[in-house]
Amino acid sequence: MFASIPQILLLVAHLHLAATAYGQACGCSSVVVPVHVNTLLAKDPTDPFGGLESNATALRRLNETYDIFGVFCAPTEKTAQSIDVIQLLVHGFTYNNEYWSPKTEEFQNQSYTAYACDRGLSTLAIDLVGVGKSTRPTNASDVQYATDSAVVSQLARHLKSASIIPGVQPFNQVIGIGHSAGSVTLIHEAITEAERSPFDGLILTGQLIFQPGELVLSGLVSAREDTPIRWGSLEPNYITEGSRALFYPSDTTLFSPRMLVYDNFTKDVGSVSIVPGISISSLLANYTGPVAKVAGLRDQAICYNTGRCDDLAALTALERVLWPKAKSFEVVLTEGGHCMNLDFLADGAFSAFVKLVKQFAGLQ
């Protein structure tokens, strides 16, 4: 569905204001990092485990270099922690880097990058392969969790070994923060890399264990049919969401109605291969760093009215089973919805993220 002309004009006005309002506590730069991906993908893009439980005959090799777009933000006043630690921010399905910092003045309180900068922490928010300003393969089936996992792993290594922009030294520690499908990307990386993972901690938001077929996503449509003016040339296996209402609290007083308009207007695409691969979250990871999961009690997809988040101790014990070698593991419950960055309760989630990052990095 297209936005109305008044809505478009309002959003354009907000985007104009963002030139002075966005990242006032930060120095932010757009970056493009070439990343070489050499990995095995499932031949069947609907494989619920993304090829991780497939035999060799069910796999194919992907050997490509992609340009990965990101926004790097660092505090304007340098501190030891801003120099030593960076957060690699991985968006969810049909979102892009703007999930971590909506580019409008009206929604500056929904910017995690600005919140983190105010507390001395640097970030790199990326567009995954096929999304936003990063390379979009012609074949959507090339965009699988294995692809994105290889990208984030290489980026984390790059952040530790090379300057992301001139004048910025490599970082000593990289903490990965994922949202929803972005969390599953980090889980895939933790499974495949295990003790070799370059991440010094993982914060997985908007994500709990799901078995194959347990989570049913409705409202998914071919992107070229949904918005032909933007995506008419894409193959049909690039998909998007008709509405994002499920990602917000059921109580509509807890988020701005204009945020939902903005969210629908700026939505991105994803590959049809990503949806069944959420089941990767039910596989064991021998990752050895610290892990935390952050879920919203008003998350209509995983917590709200499901009963699974009613007993924090039981939930933690259940989720902990799949991380047997993790240095530490905890589940943190906040008051927000699925897209916890985008409602009026975002400060609770942001506070939890920063606390965990500093805890993992030994900054407390």
Automatic annotation (TrEMBL):
The keyword Signal applies. InterPro entries: AB_hydrolase_1 (IPR000073), AB_hydrolase_fold (IPR029058). Keywords: Signal. The keyword Signal applies. Residues 88-343 form the AB hydrolase-1 domain. Pfam families: Abhydrolase_6. Residues 1-23 form the signal peptide. This is AB hydrolase-1 domain-containing protein. It comes from Roridomyces roridus.
